[in-house]
Automatic annotation (TrEMBL), chain A:
Stretches assigned to coiled coil: none
Key word Cytoplasm present: yes
GO biological process: proteolysis involved in protein catabolic process
The protein, known as: Unannotated protein
Species for this entry: freshwater metagenome
Entries under InterPro entries matching the protein: Ntn_hydrolases_N, Proteasome_alpha, Proteasome_alpha-type, Proteasome_asu_bac, Proteasome_sua/b
GO cellular component terms, A-Z: proteasome core complex, alpha-subunit complex
Entries under Pfam families matching the protein: Proteasome
GO molecular function terms attached to this record: threonine-type endopeptidase activity
Keywords from the named record: Cytoplasm, Proteasome
From TrEMBL, chain B:
Name the UniProt record assigns to this protein: Unannotated protein
InterPro entries reported for this sequence: Ntn_hydrolases_N, Proteasome_sua/b, Proteasome_suB-type, PSB_actinobac
A GO molecular-function annotation: threonine-type endopeptidase activity
GO CC entries: cytoplasm; proteasome core complex
Coiled coil (UniProt feature): none
GO BP terms, alphabetized: proteasomal protein catabolic process
One Pfam match: Proteasome
Keyword Transcription regulation: no
Signal sequence range: none
Keyword terms, alphabetized: Cytoplasm, Hydrolase, Protease
CDD domains: proteasome_protease_HslV
Amino acid sequence: MSMPFYVSPEQVMKDRADYARKGIARGRSLVALECNEGVVMVAHNPSRTLYKISEVYDRIAFAGVGKYNEFQMLKIGGVRLADMKGFQYSREDVNANSLANAYAQTLGQVFTNEMKPYEVEILVAQVGSTPAEPNELFHVLYDGTLMDESDYTVLGGDAERISDFLENAFKPGLSLAEAIQIGAKSLAEEGVTLGADQLEVAALERGRARRAFRRITGDELLGLLS
Amino acid sequence: MNETPLLPIFSDGADPGPSFLNLLRRVSPDSLQMPPAVAGHALPFELAHGTTVLAIRCEGGVVMAGDRRATSGNSIANRRIEKLFAADEYSGVAIAGTAGLAIEMVRLFQVQLEHYEKIEGASLSLEGKANQLSQMVRANLPAAMQGLVVVPLFAGFDHRRDRGRVFSYDAVGGKYEEADFSANGSGAVHARNWIKSAWREGMSADDAISISIRSLFAAADEDTATGGPDLVRGIYPLVAVINQDGFKFLEEADVAARSQLLLDGPERGGAA
């Protein structure tokens, strides 16, 4: 019987983190921005059917980048958790904070205990029900690191470049159209313009009755981009 | 992967799929527990019962309505109960029978439809929704054997067929599509006769609303368990229209104004 080589825990964690980061960097990025109407999410995604952004609950959305099957599974887990909580307690008791914590727990546990970490980064966004109530943007990394961000957040391998762009371009009080345009511009590399067919756009709009989530597609997206 | 402490993620064989009901059965079976059936034993107490609800197909959709009374034996249990609900954006469900179980069933049904939509990224077909409700009524069978019957009425706008459709159910979950209209509950026979005499193919939603209010009034006239418009307290039936734009309740003021039209009508009788 052969003896396994000793590998230090630091090395194991570093290898896993590198592996996850590489996987995430292969995919395309996604941004979320706060605007007057609520929160806008813009993803570089040429597919019309395989979504990166989804509705989770009345005022909560989920977005993921990286490996599709993995963040899709996390999305379903989130929808289940939210619907169960809303059914057993009340719709008002479902919030992004506890959902983001559940994601962080799950990702953290998979990162340390499983053979392979998830190659994903996810966003849990919640729109306030009144303009006075702040929006929430929770950004969760592949290892369970949980960050509470405001104004805008960037997910994906190209985050540094996009963040630099948004630092200059973002200002509070954007309209929905402006936020979408800035988001689209931030995702495009130097000298490239991403058209409506390259983008997946969705919004959490404060003004909508119960379900704040809405996809922005087709002619409406074309109009808002121009 | 196995279950994690918080997120309900399942291994392949145990995955409940897009069904919220299956999810609850797996994760929290206690919250679905129905009273065990005890054959031949009547319940030693009276429970609130919902009474008359109806659905009428009209041009471009369906009109649904329900009175506001719940009875418990000979007493009025609640004079403002709501028995008509939006099931989702394009369908509605109205309930008659044991109010406590029925309202819980509707709540579960609403979550079930939305849950499916969010997991699958697409809504169920109207037929699919109707079948889901059928399964829920059937799951209530043990309670129904004890007399705790829940019989819903389901209607909605079918985008694939571009028209409104009405489904009725029996206590074992049998689902029956109605051609034109249906009514359910203790006053249903009176309401149904009124609708039958006035229903026409292609009638407008506005006409169907008038008929629904008129027939609920007729039901309340003949059946003590059905509540008529209460002008003193300002309690009126719930009425909703479902068409390609979605499910929409009529404003209470609108129903009140339409109920006023009954005043001094032929129902007044005598030499006024």
